[in-house]
Design goal:
With 191 residues, this protein is α+β, with helices and mostly antiparallel strands. It has a four-stranded antiparallel β-sheet with strand order 1-2-4-3, with helices on both faces. It has helices at 14-18, 37-44, 65-73, 78-81, 106-123, 136-142, 168-175; strands at residues 55-61, 87-94, 127-131, 149-158. The chain is globular. The protein is built from seven helices and four strands, in the order ααβααβαβαβα. It has one domain (22-175): NADH Oxidase.
Length: 191
């Protein structure tokens, strides 16, 4: 397999350069109780608007009823590989407080929490893959989520598996070089 370390234009933290989103998870790997406590602690300490902390998570280990519900809600190619992950996490934004006041930055804040979670997971030797391809209404119904709780993404997490754990159509994609647009393209205005 090709090196998965990002070829950055300037040095970044090793944990960030080494982080990538695999699809090949080891279907025999399981997470012992408490193994994910550190990643959720990292998420807990992410910044948020007015310290509202509008992120919630649904954690489901492979083999549980909740895992099956989340897996059934995955669409496209996600459904073909994510079931091998040790756990699936639904990332949920609390877009209104309990009194019905809007939290317009909730999804942004959730993204910060998931980024913190991702970096912590990488530093602990775990791998994860974020997915937007899922049926939000199916998740909402499966877990009886109140309207103020919006499922935004799903994360597969676990140990790396071999390419033989992937459908053939995804094997080349898993090994393709990592690419990003040039750094200069990201900054719209530079004064």
């Amino acid at each position: 397999m090709n090196s998965r370390i990002a070829q950055t234009s300037v040095p970044v933290l090793d944990t960030l350069a080494e982080r990538w989103s695999p699809r090949a998870f080891d279907p025999d790997h399981s997470l012992p109780e408490g193994a994910l406590r550190g990643i959720f602690e990292a998420a807990r300490w992410a910044p948020s608007a007015s310290n509202t902390q509008p992120w919630r998570f649904i954690l489901a280990r492979r083999g549980s009823d909740s895992f099956a519900k989340i897996r059934e809600a995955l669409v496209g190619t996600n459904a073909s590989w994510a079931g091998n992950a040790a756990a699936l996490i639904v990332n949920v934004a609390e877009t209104e407080d309990a009194e019905g006041n809007a939290r317009p930055w909730a999804e942004y804040d959730l993204g910060q929490a998931v980024a913190h979670l991702s970096v912590q997971a990488q530093s602990e030797g775990l791998h994860l893959h974020q997915m937007g391809g899922f049926d939000r209404q199916a998740i909402r119904a499966a877990f009886a989520l109140e309207a103020r709780f919006v499922p935004v993404s799903v994360t597969a997490i676990g140990a790396l598996g071999g390419l033989d754990h992937l459908p053939e159509a995804l094997r080349d994609r898993e090994q393709a070089p990592r690419e990003r647009m040039p750094l200069e393209n990201l900054i719209l205005v530079r004064d």
